[in-house]
Design a protein that fits this description.
alpha+beta, Immunoglobulin-like, 5-stranded mixed β-sheet, 15 strands
Length: about 375
């Protein structure tokens, strides 16, 4: 009887959860009829969910269930599509949240308005606050438009580009921080966190910001996942001992991180398919060749796919990466990559002979400069 009662309670909780996370997206786009079709696409963890319905007198309705709010799009393929016509295949970007969202337009979904949605109202508020970013982006594009490969060699021009890029990033972070501080109960805060932290989050910065969110928001699935990430980020912060792992080299031989104790070690995350990684490799090769006889070595972890072992090995050979390599060929689910919460590649960690992390994200000349400082 007790087991039956527990089962009933679990089923009730599941039903309540599903009901709480139900959504309806409905509306009217002019007076469109078949064969005009409207398509809904939205993301859930690991998958893209598509749906479609034929319009009847312009009306449509979609129903579904989500875990957390998510970005989505509505697209319409009109009858008699003509390239370049706004009455062709047009789209509308928005966010789905539990509840009922209404989308309306006179003819084209591209020009639709949305009602009944708190999160879309918050998004509109954020977009309005982001208008200065468009001005800065336009300034960058206007400056870049007139440049040639020859002019890019000019140090003053490169400095100007760097300055504009830095100003854009700083303004972007400023706007995102302001939004989070003024809207601590908005799910959009999680999107702004990525802008604020970049791909190498500092827990000393992000944890206080996360703690400023509402309790409701912190207890969503997204909030719980972020809290778990903060704990992981603390294990790979500067000054921490790098987490131990074992992974196989190309010959299937297990290699442990602790095998390299006693030397300065660059733990390098890359992949054969990653253009920026391949562009970065010459800098890494140069640093390795200069300091490999001065108590320095490299261990590269590849995020290549299971069916791409040959591509991985070919890239190692072509790029002259003559140091130790490991991979489980699980792409972004590489177990070492997950352990170190890698969000973008190339990425790296510099470890001292005791295995402590002393630097991260050393790109270009930064790696050689850091090694020159350490290995005089």
């Amino acid at each position: 009887m007790k087991k039956l009662l527990v089962l009933v309670l679990v089923l009730v909780q599941i039903a309540a959860f599903a009901q709480e996370n139900n959504f309806t997206v409905k509306g009217k786009i002019g007076n469109l009829n078949a064969p005009a079709t409207i398509y809904l696409r939205y993301q859930q963890p690991g998958i893209t969910k598509p749906d479609s319905v034929v319009l009847k007198n312009g009306e449509f309705e979609f129903k579904g269930n989500i875990i957390d709010p998510t970005r989505a799009s509505l697209q319409i393929k009109h009858d008699g599509y003509q390239p370049g016509s706004r009455r062709g295949y047009d789209a509308f970007q928005f966010l789905i949240e539990p509840g009922t969202i209404t989308v309306t337009s006179k003819d084209s979904v591209k020009f639709a308005t949305i009602s009944g949605s708190k999160i879309n109202a918050e998004n509109a508020k954020f977009l309005a606050a982001s208008k200065p970013l468009e001005e800065k982006r336009s300034e960058m594009q206007a400056f870049y438009k007139g440049l040639t490969q020859e002019s890019m060699k000019d140090t003053a021009i490169r400095a100007r580009l760097t300055k504009l890029s830095s100003e854009f990033s700083a303004l972007q972070k400023e706007i995102s921080l302001k939004f989070v501080r003024e809207n601590p109960d908005s799910w959009l805060c999680f999107e702004q966190f990525r802008t604020i932290s970049g791909y190498q989050p500092d827990p000393n910065v992000m944890e206080p910001l996360f703690n400023s969110l509402s309790e409701r928001l912190k207890n969503t699935d997204a909030g719980k996942a972020y809290a778990a990430n903060i704990i992981k980020w603390r294990t790979i912060a500067i000054g921490k001992t790098a987490p131990e792992f074992t992974q196989n080299d190309p010959d299937g031989k297990p290699v442990k991180l602790s095998d390299f104790r006693g030397k300065y070690l660059l733990l390098d995350f890359w992949a054969s398919w990653c253009g920026p990684c391949r562009a970065e490799n010459p800098h890494v090769v140069e640093a390795y060749n200069k300091y490999k006889d001065k108590n320095f070595t490299i261990l590269s972890v590849s995020l290549d796919k299971e069916d791409a072992k040959e591509a991985w090995l070919a890239a190692i050979k072509k790029d002259n990466l003559t140091w130790n390599h490991v991979s489980d060929l699980k792409f972004w689910k590489n177990e070492v990559s997950v352990l170190y919460t890698i969000q973008a590649i190339p990425d790296n960690f510099l470890l001292n002979p005791e295995g402590k992390i002393i630097a991260r994200g050393l790109r270009g000349d930064a790696l050689a400069s850091k090694l020159a400082e350490l290995l005089k």
